[in-house]
Amino acid sequence: MSELATRKQTMRAQGRLKIMLESAPDAYYLHALNGIFLDGNQAAEELTGYPREKLIGESFLKLKLLFPSQISRVVALLAKNTLGEDTGPDEFVLKLERRKPGHCRGKDASPKDQRTTLGVGHCPRRYQAQVSKDGAATE
Question: Which fold has domain 25-138?
């Protein structure tokens, strides 16, 4: 196979993968080891209540997606990832203050129900010449 044909085949495969990830029902995201979001799919937008443009370049700490009692655990997991260790699945409670009513799977979110429990797994990866984490979150 020629180099051009191989490149075209790779581009088609990447396009299919992008479509699959974008339309996946679970949230997939990529963030740097300092907690800055680098990318995410539609489900990540819906889960957090933030549009992708607002997520990318922001820290999940600054966006206050987690409750303060969980931050030290997140920092410990980030430290493990910095050392190249996979983590998860871990369970976190996500604040839902920005989510629209009815976004919780299997139930309606009411003003009293401003949280959901997530199963989260992370794996360190290289992305654009830096070590980052890809993650998946499932309600």
Answer: Beta-Lactamase (3.30.450)
